[in-house]
């Protein structure tokens, strides 16, 4: 069964460093998303991406964040200068909205720890 | 204000019993989706119910949706130890470009 994959599973970085989180969405999906979950809190929407551009972004997704689909398979989230409060689990998701259902399938997540 | 709120926050049941959890939301939706998350792991999609549907089944899962009350319930029948997880409802709001708004979740513990 096709699935969303994410790398790395765990990333430790120092405050102020840039990180790139990588995702490979399900191959025939057209909508891509990033969400995050701070430990013990609920999952929060960051950004949606369709047709090579951002469809919607939340207040969390400020100028420090960017997304890119560098080729036909990868979808990346970059945090330019990490802060302690960026420590969270980051989930990538994808959906095939053409079915009319928008079932979003999530990857296993990347745990980002900023020290 | 939060779109999805589950209750109870935590539920502990014996293996074989049924588990019911509820989700309430505030604004009109396209659909409501339930997800499971095992501790520290990813989100597994369980079931999607559209706003014009009232009930949906998938294996041991039964989901209801009452749009007049803006609420949904997830029933897990004949629970197993492997059902121990956190369960989240997520709503896709009308005209909201497909993003999902998640509730805080219900943590279910199934005792063997």
Give the topology.
The complex is a heterodimer of chains A (115) and B (112).
Chain A: E1 5-7, E2 10-13, E3 19-24, E4 31-37, E5 43-50, E6 53-57, E7 65-68, E8 75-79, E9 88-95, E10 105-106, E11 110-114
Parallel strand pairs in A: 2-11
Antiparallel strand pairs in A: 1-3, 3-8, 4-5, 4-9, 5-6, 7-8, 9-10, 9-11
Chain B: E1 4-7, E2 10-14, E3 19-25, E4 29-37, E5 43-50, E6 55-58, E7 61-66, E8 71-76, E9 85-93, E10 100-102, E11 106-111
Parallel strand pairs in B: 2-11
Antiparallel strand pairs in B: 1-3, 3-8, 4-5, 4-9, 6-7, 7-8, 9-10, 9-11
Summarize the structure.
The complex is a heterodimer of chains A (115) and B (112). With 115 residues, chain A is mainly beta.
Fold and architecture overview:
The complex is a heterodimer of chains A (115) and B (112). Chain A is globular and about 40 Å long. Chain A has no helices and eleven strands. Chain A has strands at 5-7, 10-13, 19-24, 31-37, 43-50, 53-57, 65-68, 75-79, 88-95, 105-106, 110-114. With 115 residues, chain A is mostly beta strands. The mean pLDDT of chain B is 91. In chain B, a hairpin with a 4-residue loop joins β7 and β8. Chain B contains no helices and eleven strands. Chain A binds chain B through residues 31, 33, 35, 41-45, 48, 55-56, 58, 89, 91, 93, 95, 97, 101-109, 111, and chain B through 2, 30-31, 33, 35, 40-45, 48, 50, 88, 90, 92, 96-105.
